[in-house]
Amino acid sequence: MEIGISTFVETTPDTKTGQTISHAERIREVVEEIVLADEVGLDVFGVGEHHRKDYAASSPAVILAAAASRTKRIRLTSAVTVLSSADPVRVFQDFATLDGISEGRAEIMAGRGSFIESFPLFGYDLQDYNELFDEKLDLLLKLQSEEIVNWTGKHRPSIPNRGVYPRPVQTPLPIWIGSGGTPQSVVRAGQLGLPLVLAIIGGRPLQFAPLVKLYKQAAARAGHDVSKLPIASHSHGFVAETDVVAGDKFFPSTQYAMNVIGRERGWGHYDRAAFDAARSLEGALYVGDSDTVAEKIIHLRKNVGITRFLLHTPLGSMPHEDVLNAIRLLGTEVAPKVREQVAEWEAEL
């Protein structure tokens, strides 16, 4: 069972002072957070790609590369790379370079992205949303498996017998599929034999169990060894010394961020009642002390089948020292409990 962190490198106003941290300062903070995650024994750190004012990570590979030479064992991944509006050749080259710097710890998490600002920015038509992803994923997988590439598509110039360099340390460079939880996306990942990441950020996490089953069935039908296919989840959360402290620290920035996105997407107002309800054992918020968060991750492992868990923290902007403390607790207290209890449970199966 792998435990890690994901972040979108958010730069929203401080809920107490109203001041907003600069993009540059937040990026430097995230590098420090990755270094600490490595020091406390976490398995993976993911940085998500966005192209808007309240997120500072338009280039996850660059941020991860800054941390690569300062870390030793933690795996470094995008979370996600918005492949539909990117050039797969450049994506592969960036992460192959990261793989070299990190001595074989890079991963790509490819997805459509739940935000659409990158499409007009890079000149793509949203009417081609699904077609773009399918075509670019096809090219990315060819780059993963072949040094000399022959490829023809509709939305990108053809590649006639060209080498793509540098080559990564890992063979193959890991490519995961990020999914918001649609049957079509999990079936595609299964058919391709690619690791799956589910964004479990609302509702009941156990509702994702049928999707995991569907993914495994699709992989098995396509002839892939299901036992070798990891399944990850990404969920909002925060760890502190007590449940009360965790909730009180995490709620203000979470409420701000959820209501900003909610206004854009037509959601209802996000309040403390909704927040607290999601903190229950069956809810999608992993907020509490180390015992509470560990219990929920173990519950997810046993009932959904997740083999990698990414705690997305912070949601909105929080004090850097609070984020560092949450990472420290996740690595030194939560992760050991989860690994030990999951190992004991699996040994009894």
Strand-residue proportion: 15-25%
Which percent range fits the helix content?
40-55%
- The order of strands across the largest sheet is 1-2-3-5-8-9-10-12
Cα-atom Rg, whole angstroms? 19 Å
Keywords:
single chain, 349 residues, alpha/beta, 8-stranded parallel β-barrel, two-stranded antiparallel ribbon, 11 helices, 12 strands, 45% helix
Structural topology:
Blueprint lengths: L1 E6 L15 H17 L4 E4 L12 H9 L6 E4 L2 E2 L5 H14 L4 E6 L6 H4 L7 H17 L2 E4 L7 E5 L11 E5 L3 H10 L3 E4 L9 H13 L9 E9 L3 H23 L6 H7 L7 E3 L1 H15 L3 E5 L7 H29 L1
Parallel strand pairs: 1-2, 1-12, 2-3, 3-5, 4-5, 5-8, 8-9, 9-10, 10-11, 10-12
Antiparallel strand pairs: 6-7
Report on the structure:
The radius of gyration is 19 Å and the shape is globular. It contains 11 helices and 12 strands. Strand 1, helix 1 and strand 2 (44-47) form a beta-alpha-beta unit. The protein is 45% helix and 16% strand. The mean pLDDT is 97. The longest helix has 29 residues, at 320-348. It has helices at 23-39, 60-68, 88-101, 118-121, 129-145, 183-192, 209-221, 243-265, 272-278, 290-304, 320-348, and strands at residues 2-7, 44-47, 75-78, 81-82, 106-111, 148-151, 159-163, 175-179, 196-199, 231-239, 286-288, 308-312. It has an 8-stranded parallel barrel, surrounded by 8 helices. It has 349 residues and is of the alpha/beta class.
